[in-house]
């Protein structure tokens, strides 16, 4: 009972934030039982001014902190659970938070490496990126009188405890929902939270990310178009990951790609071929390979970062998928036409096959829609 009371109290705070951000205003009252309709009306009374505009759920989850951000990103891939409208709202959810103080990051590093920061790094700068679980700093290490730049990823202080607390609340809601709702049991909400919990647990041990980097470096050693940053194992622990600093153009930076006169069709070929090599040749691939996690270096090679989420395919699965993809590629098409909006809000690819028919892929926001013409 005490545990349930604690969960309810913490969830009440989340409900207040959702109400303030206008999340409940997007709920159709006709789909809610009469007692719930009264609760919706009360929630609408405490909406802050201007909450009706923009992406309400995204704002609310960002305010609630790291675990809620991760939950939102996870549910963005499950329109069967949250509905198409809400999933589209969540697609724009960015895993970005304000950085925690420099002095705290330095303390975490010193404690993890068991030596003063000045002994581990020749220089250590402020955070250059901050997300829900960790943030990244630019530093320098000196070896044989030569300095080289490194990226230092540091876990947020007490992030594991905060995730455990919030995940316990999520499990409480899922258990209650499955107890009283056949629809919740059909959607297997407890398993949804279980999957998220396992993923987060892996991301919060930076040694596992370092191991993934090293494994992929070994797999791709001979690849001409792809590489990964080298890991500095002497400065890597559970809470700290030190690796080579990457100077390059992020694939999400369309303006710099255009200024550098990058051959975009060739770049697309590199991305697709690299992913297929990893998945089908090695059975080990980057499972979060969005443009923000890919860079183009001075030699024209793709460099991937953020190896917190990885995937594996067994030999049986690869033997099945290989011929399927080969058949698809052989049937592909004689021509490929592309068109894009100047502001990058949409992209249209039209592929003409031998029969004259077309496969059309349209990207709007973060969603791809496929059709035939």
Written description of the protein model:
- There is one protein chain.
- Among the domains are: 2-94 and 161-202, no CATH class; 331-372.
- It contains 15 helices and 14 strands.
- The chain has helices spanning 2-20, 34-45, 56-64, 66-75, 79-82, 84-91, 102-113, 117-120, 159-180, 182-187, 189-203, 206-219, 254-259, 264-282, 315-330; strands spanning 123-130, 134-143, 146-155, 226-227, 240-244, 249-250, 284-286, 294-296, 302-304, 310-312, 335-340, 346-352, 358-364, 367-372.
- The model has no long low-confidence stretch (mean pLDDT 82).
- The radius of gyration is 23 Å and the shape is globular.
- Helix content is 47%, strand content 20%.
- A hairpin with a 3-residue loop joins strand 1 (123-130) and strand 2.
- It has a four-stranded antiparallel beta sheet.
- The protein has 373 residues and is an alpha+beta fold.
């Amino acid at each position: 009972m005490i545990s349930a009371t604690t969960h309810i109290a913490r969830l009440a705070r989340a409900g207040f934030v959702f109400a303030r951000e206008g999340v409940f205003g997007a709920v159709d009252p006709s789909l809610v039982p009469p007692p719930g309709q009264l609760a919706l009306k009360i929630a609408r009374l405490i909406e802050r001014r201007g909450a009706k505009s923009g992406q309400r759920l995204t704002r609310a989850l960002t305010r609630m902190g790291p675990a809620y951000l991760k939950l939102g990103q996870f549910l963005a891939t499950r329109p069967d659970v949250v509905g198409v409208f809400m999933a589209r709202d969540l697609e724009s959810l960015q895993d970005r938070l304000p950085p925690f103080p420099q002095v705290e990051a330095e303390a975490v590093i010193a404690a993890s490496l068991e030596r003063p920061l000045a002994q581990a790094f020749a220089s250590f700068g402020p955070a250059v990126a901050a997300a829900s679980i960790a943030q990244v700093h630019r530093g320098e290490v000196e070896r044989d009188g030569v300095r080289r730049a490194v990226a230092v990823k540091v876990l947020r202080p007490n992030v594991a405890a905060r995730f455990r607390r919030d995940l316990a609340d999520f499990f409480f809601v899922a258990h209650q929902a499955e107890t009283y709702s056949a629809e919740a049991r059909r959607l297997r909400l407890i398993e949804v939270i279980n999957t998220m919990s396992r993923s987060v647990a892996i991301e919060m041990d930076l040694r596992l990310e370092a191991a993934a980097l090293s494994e992929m470096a070994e797999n791709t050693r001979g690849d001409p178009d792809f590489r990964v940053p080298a890991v500095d194992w002497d400065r890597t622990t559970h809470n700290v990951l030190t690796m080579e600093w990457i100077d390059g153009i992020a694939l999400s930076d369309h303006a710099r790609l255009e200024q550098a006169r990058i051959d975009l069709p060739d770049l697309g070929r590199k991305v697709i071929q690299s992913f297929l090599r990893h998945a089908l040749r090695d059975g080990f691939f980057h499972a979060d390979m969005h443009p923000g996690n890919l860079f183009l270096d001075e030699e024209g090679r793709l460099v991937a970062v953020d190896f917190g989420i990885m995937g594996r395919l067994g030999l049986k699965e690869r033997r099945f998928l290989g011929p399927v993809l080969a058949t698809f590629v052989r049937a592909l098409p004689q021509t490929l036409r592309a068109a894009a909006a100047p502001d990058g809000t949409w992209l249209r690819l039209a592929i003409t096959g031998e029969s004259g028919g077309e496969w059309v892929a349209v990207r709007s926001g973060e969603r791809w829609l496929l059709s035939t013409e």
